[in-house]
Specification:
Elements (H helix, E strand, L loop, with lengths): L16 H8 L2 E6 L3 H12 L4 E7 L2 H11 L3 E4 L2 E2 L2 E2 H9 L6 E6 L4 H10 L3 E4 L4 H12 L4 E2 L6 H4 L13 H11 L4 H8 L3 H15 L4 H10 L15
Parallel strand pairs: 1-2, 1-3, 3-6, 6-7, 7-8
Antiparallel strand pairs: 4-5
């Protein structure tokens, strides 16, 4: 293997303020899971995103809390079952940090009791390891912006219109919640498609599904619902006329 050559930058090379700003605003993610293969896969996925970076990883509860404190991360992706401490106790310790990271549980435990315990302890999101890459990335962005997300829906949630965890947003997938947030912010279908790297037709399909699930027709109704369930926390968004 050839030795790496140092990269030399001319002192008069112009800088790119927009690029520097984008790098500074990346979501700093810590992965906490005792499976090295899963951590490696998530590292590749997250570091491939222009608005995220994996700043560290942990394989047990003690490492998770200490590294979250030392690395000043924005989001902790946390498995509930790891050596050293219970998942809920790790969440409670993380919520005492200052600044406090947002906590997204990524687990194989598909049961209401574990989900409820995690949310009551202070987690902002709960998603299963069977979720797709796009759903996980959308969930990271949602919890980072102050939203709360739980996935997937359970039998009976659709009929009741809400979940034991507390709200109609429970019926939305992470991707649907992200589309809802963008539309509620006032983005057009084209703008939302560009933001998520999707086609306009796909955004229109998501919007029809949102209308069907939630019974919301206008953009103002979408905006009010997104505010109610916390998808716009921290955003200075205002509803735009429907388009």
């Amino acid at each position: 293997m050839w030795p790496a050559s140092p990269v030399r930058v001319p002192p008069d090379l112009p800088t790119n303020p927009k690029a520097d700003s984008a790098l500074a605003q990346r979501i700093r993610v810590l992965i906490a899971d005792d499976h090295a293969v899963l951590r490696a896969g998530l590292r590749l996925l997250i570091n491939a995103q222009p608005d995220m970076e994996m700043v560290g990883e942990a394989a047990d509860g003690i490492q998770t809390v200490s590294r979250a404190r030392d690395l000043n991360c924005d989001v902790v992706i946390l498995d509930l079952i790891m050596p050293g401490a219970s998942g809920t106790s790790i969440i409670e310790e993380l919520t005492r940090l200052d600044p406090r990271p947002r906590i997204l549980v990524l687990t194989g435990l598909d049961d209401p009791a574990s989900e409820r315990s995690a949310l009551e302890a202070g987690a902002s999101g709960y998603i299963l390891k069977t979720a797709g890459d796009g759903d996980l990335l959308a969930a990271i962005r949602i919890v980072h912006r102050g939203g709360t997300l739980v996935n997937p829906p359970r039998p009976g949630d659709e009929a009741r219109g809400q979940s034991p965890a507390g709200g109609p947003s429970r019926r939305l997938s992470p991707r649907e919640a992200e589309v809802l947030r963008l539309l509620a912010q006032g983005q057009t279908n084209q703008e939302a498609a560009n933001h998520l790297g999707l086609s306009v037709k796909t955004i229109e399909t998501h919007r029809k599904r949102l209308s069907g699930k939630l019974g919301l027709k206008t953009r103002a109704e979408l905006f009010r619902f997104a505010v109610e369930v916390g998808l716009l926390e921290g955003d200075a968004a205002q509803p735009r006329d429907d388009s």
